[in-house]
Amino acid sequence: MDGATLCNCALEELRLVFGPLGDQLHAQLRDLTPRGTHLWEFIRDILIHPELNEGLMKWENRHEGVFKFLRSEAVAQLWGQKKKNSNMTYEKLSRAMRYYYKREILERVDGRRLVYKFGKNSSGWKEEEVLQSRN
User: In the CATH scheme, what architecture does the domain 35-124 have?
Assistant: First the structure.
């Protein structure tokens, strides 16, 4: 298994290959890899890794890239932990998300509270992309 493949492995895959060390390896890789350093990647990673999701977010339409925050403040707290900002709130997180509208990475879904869509300049969220990264 090469390094890129290893970095893209889900927790279950690491447990299968490395046994009890899989959990430790997953945590270390998550801290070392640049993936997830941007807010939109953090959101994407929560959605594509159900073992990390814990009912925080859900796909409304995976094919179209539409998702919904179920526990918005909990997601904001996790983002705050990752960024070492204990004062993070959903209000601040959603303000940061608006930065991605102009860059067409995220889109707001009109008339739907807490519902967003991945834009044409986002990547790694489509099922075929996720499957390719794991193979």
Answer: Orthogonal Bundle (1.10)
